[in-house]
Amino acid sequence: MVMTPMSTPREEKHSILGWTGQVLAWFVIAGVVVLLTLGVLAPRVGGATPYTILTGSMEPGLPPGTLVVVKPVQPEKIAVGTVITYQLDSGRPTVVTHRVVRVGIDGTGERIFSTQGDANNAPDQKPVRPVQVRGEVWYSVPYLGHLNNALTGGERAIAVYVVGFGLLLYAATMFTGAARERRRDRQPDRTEVSS
Fold it and tell me: What CATH topology corresponds to 49-147?
């Protein structure tokens, strides 16, 4: 007669906790990968630039802390309703993200855009010239802008490498543990009792 050992309630509890921990870890890893893709990889591949919404002028759609990824756009493709990011003053780093509410032509024949924040009662005072436009909003990610603001360009690059290395290390640990467990399962059970 061959008998196999039964698992104890304690072993079953550890098994359930281990499985739950693994599922949770994979959700965290997937979340980090998605955030890195949306905040770093996709903008670089798409030739876009990430910016953070700092004020409530575009609420409720783009509240403060939202990361907006802005793609370059030709001025003739900007229409009423397009959300653009533009420099307040040409050549200066300060930018604003607002919706185009009117497209016109100035006295020299150049296109100009009137913009307005979705939460504002009136259009912005100064028209926007094409040279000021950084691009149109490609996509946005709520709350990710807080992290974008917390890290400088150099810190962001280091964070990407650290997280990437951590994910690779975790994957290697998981694969090693699984290989050990498979090897252990293949070994004959020495707890058999015959009568």
Answer: Umud Fragment, subunit A (2.10.109)
